Amino acid sequence: MIRRRAWLGSRALDYVLSLPWAAKGQVCITGHSRNGKQSLIAAAFDERITAVADSSSGSPAGSPYRLTSAFTYAEDPFGGWPSCDRTAANHCDCSCDLSNLTHPAYATRPLPTGGGADPRCCWWKPSIVLYEGRENEAPIDSHGLYALIAPRHVIGEHAMTDGCDPTFAVEGAYVAGREAYRFLNASDHIRIEWRPGQHHGFESLDRYFDFFDIAFGRVDGASFPPLSIASSFPEVLLHSFDWAGWNASVGGPAAATPPPAGATNATAALEWLLGIAPSAGPGWSPGGEYGLLDWDYIQPMLGRSASGTPEKQLLADGVTQIALNFGEYTYAQMWWVEDDDGGPANVTGKPAVIWLHPYAYQDGYTVNYGQGSPNVLTEIAKAGHVVIAFDQVGFGLRQQQGTSFYSRYPLWSKLGRMVRDVSSAIDVLLSPQNNFSYATHPDGLPITPFMGVRFPAIDPKRIFAAGYSLGGMVALHAAALDARLAGAASIAGISPLRAQDMVLQTGGNAVLSHWHSLLPRLGWYEGREQEIPLDYDDVIAATLKPTLVVAPEGDRMADHKALLALLARARSKLGPSGHLLTLATTKYAPPTPGGQGIVMPAQGINRLCNQHQALLLEWLHNQTATSRS
């Protein structure tokens, strides 16, 4: 469908170029969302188009599937738009069908608009759904469009918090495409530009046409300031990390204190790997409106709004949601269900879970494409827990903190900051704010209803860290280093550091040291991974706490076989405490054609699906019941 729309654009161009006043060397095309896809494809296959501006074209187009999909809370081949509610009686058949439009089901199944095939469907070749969970095996991805367009002018404009367009994936495609332009000595013909907001709104049409005018040589030399690609469209990258530059700035491994040796020093080795942390900021701040600058408009931009006020909202199923901040100006939200367990007379208080999000640069902990799965935050709350979640450094509202992180903290690491934020969240949960007395804020001001909305009392013996993908890795590190955590759960969060046999599939340790710049010191061990001072079996053994590891068999970001061996070693190192480690593997099953052309999604892949959520909730129930008894 999308190729046909691009083809129609070329047929429209046939007519335009037949007009006597049309400038044949000055043809531009632009479009937003799916029309951004259409614009890129039209330019890729029609060389008469000399400049293109892509606005938030999503996945796959500006965002290649290899760097996005379910593990970033974004579109994947099965769950992308247009998709449909397959539980509804009048659902449509969209891009996740293997059948073609001649299948009898299309003619007989009723649709919301009255029947027949949904005209929005099948943007891409329908069989792309078969690559769900193994997008890296597709023969080509959308960043190839840049190579087809080169050396003609192209600019991509994308929103910072667009759930359809993860900034990391957008930038990765741009950096890859830039190589084709450099090869053709046309580096100034490709640019990327960021705008605030969500998917729709804030499109900068005047910027598009400034770019087109420069590309067509239509710029008036007397303009002030003078327009040029270099001056008017400077290259701004959010996530590209110069590891070699960082390494030179810190003096390389020779300038660092040697890592602790010996299996008994796992905690010290972990602290060494995380780097040298600066002094910590304040431990907690009250919730409500205090310090939540512009929360009213920021939250709706991220899809986090609900009825009520910014400081307290009531969601479905009796879930209460509040806003708060803590630590070094970290904004967060909290959820719980009001009941007798959290009242003033309760002695122990509620169990609590610190939820840590995946590689969702665009929106942090906000789930954009759940693919039919319930919201994990409210599900944990409905199970009786108080839940707190926040954007980790470099993600969501904190993306630009990640861009400049190593300029401020060259000896530390982003993962180290993430672990510290977990500890700060524990400070919040255990703060005087939750004891239903009129305590005071650390700056001496009284906590009034305006300055802080109280949340239920928390049982200090039942605080857990849990996360998915990146968040699962952070949870394990935090549990090893903060004694106040009762346990940790990791869903598709880790792959062995010392096992690099599947580096072409997983990306290896470069994912942590170079791609996401979470642990730069790992880069010192490239080619000699067996010398890394510790691996995740050491981390798990060092916690001596209940630990859940969900390891999907089809996780393309992990070496599954090596991970199972690592977890066996972890259980062995735990010795008599081996029962503390719970391993849950989910078996891989590819997308399966069903009746009437319907395709069932893949199972056992890197996705926060119903099955993985159920495993987490069951484990939390077992741990909280055991620790309370």
Low-confidence runs: 81-120, 287-297, 340-346, 435-439
User: Residue-averaged pLDDT, rounded?
Assistant: 83
The helix fraction, in percent, is: 25-40%
Q: How many domains?
A: 2
Architecture of the largest domain, according to CATH? 3-Layer(aba) Sandwich
CATH topology of the largest domain: Rossmann fold
Radius of gyration: 26 Å
Distance between the termini: 59 Å
| Strand composition percent | 5-15%
Q: How many beta-strand runs?
A: 16
Shape: globular
Q: Report the total helices.
A: 20
Order of strands in the sheet with the most strands? 5-6-7-8-10-9-11-12-13-14
CATH superfamily of the largest domain: Alpha/Beta hydrolase fold, catalytic domain
